[in-house]
Amino acid sequence: MVRTAVAFSPGHISGYFRRVEGSEPSTTGSIGAGVVISEGVRSTVEEARETSIRVVRQGHATAGSPPVEYALERLGVAARVTTECRLPIGAGFGLSAAALLATLTAVNHLFDFGLSADEVAAYAHEAEVLHRTGLGDVAASRAGGVVCRTGAGIHAEITRIYPEEPLYAVSLGALPTASVLSSDEAMARIAAAYPDRCPRDLPDFCRLSRGFAERSGLVAPEVRRVLDACDAAGVPASMTMLGNGVFACGKAAERVLSGLGEVYTLHVAHRGAYLIEEKP
Ligand SMILES: Nc1ncnc2c1ncn2[C@@H]1O[C@H](COP(=O)(O)OP(=O)(O)O)[C@@H](O)[C@H]1O
Ligand SMILES: CC(C)(COP(=O)(O)O)[C@@H](O)C(=O)O
Q1: What does the pLDDT look like over 50-79, one tens digit per residue?
Q2: Residue 73, SS3 per DSSP
Q3: Domains of the chain (ranges plus CATH)?
Q4: Is the ipTM here above 0.85?
Q5: Where are the annotated coiled coils located (predicted)?
Q6: Torsion of CA 166, 171, 175, 178, to 10 degrees
């Protein structure tokens, strides 16, 4: 019988960030603020002779995930991995980090590596940074909350608050994170746009994020239309970094967004990645 382990990791919506360039992946990352969300990635890992990754979303499967394949190779294991998520990929919901954290959490148990949560996160962070799929998402998604990261990497100082109210998001399509992180010009605008303080609560997070989005020059025309509709209704909203999407706070947000795309109701997560089951 083939042994299997299943784990889940929450995703993370980044509201604002600034790249921090270190001498190695562990000291490279970002500072910034975001929300760790109840939705994320579930990963099922089975022993196998050769590695294969199946990425399933809404009943549709695609093959391959360079960051996850890299992380398995780095740990010296071959496995059959299936990741499942409800939110769209590449849309600023931190799913690459969630896929890595969920998969490595399951791998750690399946292969009896005995890695600490810190070590699992360090491998996930390295894969993210090297593949330019994220900078601060692994650090954020190690636990829950509205997070403010004041240093780069997984050991940096992070404050977390746990508001009860939900937030709402719509996605208008993907924006490959690597395309933005590889642009020096975009990175310079982002650095200059950074709001130099942590959010007090969820509405404050939305406002600080919006100021950043405007100054960064990243707002695309479709995102602008959704932000305009939110502004007209007095709903605090900003852009999912880095994706073509919008998140919004407050009671009227769901109604305003519902005419503009599929609305995801998201709750602030209370915990990071965890093992769901191990069989047999
Ligand atoms: N659910 C997932 N399962 C496996 N790999 C994933 C998943 N989500 C993202 N990835 C990997 O990350 C890449 C996209 O990274 P990125 O643009 O940062 O997406 P996101 O904004 O969702 O984190 C994908 O091409 C894929 O290699
Ligand atoms: C904004 C981003 C660089 C990418 O986030 P995503 O597109 O969700 O992978 C994030 O990792 C951050 O450092 O804040």
Answers
A1: 999 999 999 999 999 999 999 999 999 999
A2: helix
A3: 1-280 (3.30.230.120)
A4: yes
A5: none
A6: 30
